[in-house]
Amino acid sequence: MVNWFGLIVPFAYLSILIGSLATFSSLYRKRKLASSLSLEPWFPPHLQRNIYLSLLHLEPAPGQEKATPVPDSVLKAALIQRACEDIRRILEVRNAKQALSNLLQRGSVGDQLWQRFLRAEKEVEAELRDVVEEANGLQAGWGQTIFQSANEMVNNDMIRKNVADIQAKAKTDREWWDKERASIQSQFLKELDEDAAPTEAIKGTAPGSSGAGSEKPNSDEDAVLVEGGGPASLGSAAGKGAKKRKGKK
Known about the structure:
By secondary structure, the protein is mainly alpha-helical.
């Protein structure tokens, strides 16, 4: 005969165990969902998406039955701007994923930050799918090329910003170089003046010494001329000797 009382105990144990596990799992999921919803978003509010949705679902003005239809060109422009913002967010996610993963492995960042990043990544993926659907709704096949056009526009904006930054930095560097060049020139001229001062002092003493030395040779020559009798006396003596020889002959 089967002992049902002996079987009730293990079945009751299993039911209690399964019920507790299910309760714990449901509570854990609810708590995790609540914590993920309470996390601070990774990106700021999507302004371009809000503008596009506002234009798409424009409400009628007071006193009008239907709202004024928005031209397709305006909707396309708003959608392309939305795609450009999505491209910027994709680039930010791709650049931050590897670095954040390495920091998480080292324990430098907490799991909460990683959850925020994963949530932002999922939101970006859903946003991309939504943009493709909206583009195909406005124009057939446009969803395949809208992000290419948006990528070109983003790259153009980045190049313009880089050029503007370089020009602003060039102006600052130019002002710094003008000041530096003026200081270098003033210092160089000061050194030239300091080097020219001893040279002028030497030149100022040189004429006096040369004048004194030139006066002595002149006086010595005069003395020699006086003592020797000069060329005139020598010539007269030679003439007298010649006359005496002629008379003897």
